[in-house]
Amino acid sequence: MKIGTRIDETGTLSRDGGAFWLRRDAGGRYQLELQRTPVDLVEKRVRLVGTLVGAELVSADGVAPA
Hints:
Layout: E1 6-16, E2 19-24, E3 29-33, E4 45-54, E5 57-65
Parallel strand pairs: 3-5
Antiparallel strand pairs: 1-2, 1-4, 2-3, 4-5
């Protein structure tokens, strides 16, 4: 996908060290840049809306339960 592409996907939110990741339902994963830390959603199925800013990096507008 091209940088700047809008992302709207579901998957499982995980934490690895200090980083948050979305394990995508479609396969693969995205590292997330987040404005708030959604610790209550870790290891739960979520919907991610944001913008692709790197090869596997998404600037998240929102993460919510799916």
